[in-house]
Design brief:
Elements: H1 3-6, H2 12-19, H3 25-36, H4 46-53, H5 57-66, H6 72-81, H7 95-98, H8 105-122, H9 125-137, E1 140-145, H10 150-163, E2 167-170, H11 177-181, E3 188-193, H12 202-211, E4 215-221, H13 226-229, E5 233-237, H14 249-266, H15 268-284
Parallel strand pairs: 1-2, 1-3, 3-4, 4-5
Helix pairs in contact: 3-4, 3-5, 4-5, 8-14, 9-14, 10-14
Length: about 300
Amino acid sequence: MDVQNSQPTRSLESRIYSVYAGLSPSERRLADVMLEHQMDLALYTAGELARKAGVSTATAARLIRTLGYSSYPAAKRQIREAVHWGSPQGGAIDTAQHAAEVPTLASVVQTNIDNIRATADGTSPETLDAICNACIAAERIFVVGMRNGFGLAHYAAHYLGLIKNDVRVLPATGTSMAHELSGIREGDLVICFAFRRRPRKLPLLLNEIRAAGAIAVLITDISAAESAKAADHVIRCRCHSLAAFNSFTAAATMIDYISWTVAARLGDISVERFRRIDRMVELIDDVATPKRETARPKG
């Protein structure tokens, strides 16, 4: 019996994430390219991937060995046969090992810090600047949450809605995506959150948004390929987790940065909206707030 083949095949993501911190800058660039193209890795030679990453073929050969593959053809075969592709389990360092382990708080914190740092390092300042400027200039902002991106869409819309008028989350309850997006027009901004198992028609959706004259922003994971090509701006978030769950701390950090930057750039405009919101909260919402002290009469 082949003991090695009887073990679960580790995914490309789990192999890369387990050694990422110790990789050289050139090896990290190549690792990021491999993650980005893991769905169609069979279409590329090792040399072509190396050129995409701007590294040498020697670096490619070294990284393949570091990841535990005997050769690049063997790597392509195992990646193609991986049973967990697209599942959160694909990002676990060792699915069989971690399924039975209780993570420590320190390990979870460190994993999230690593995700945030890797995402920040992989996102250009020009991309972030363009997205922030698009938020400022947009007449309307639509925030779309696909599958497990729905919660992040609400998170983003909450903060952007404190800064800008007319921020909407899609799909809204009781409506269809097609109905809502049919009214997209020039001057609008659509921010789409879609991770891993993305809808097959996402590239078509993004192309339609751009054809209408709106700006399309995609916030996704490292593996996005065709959908990333269809967007105006893309943020690829590292979603690695110690368990069979995606971690979205990096995506939440990107939301924080964009929201805080837009608020700062809008200046008095955002401050005035905050004031209007606070006034309406005091008038309408039944919330507990500290009572203001009234001045006592003298004497």
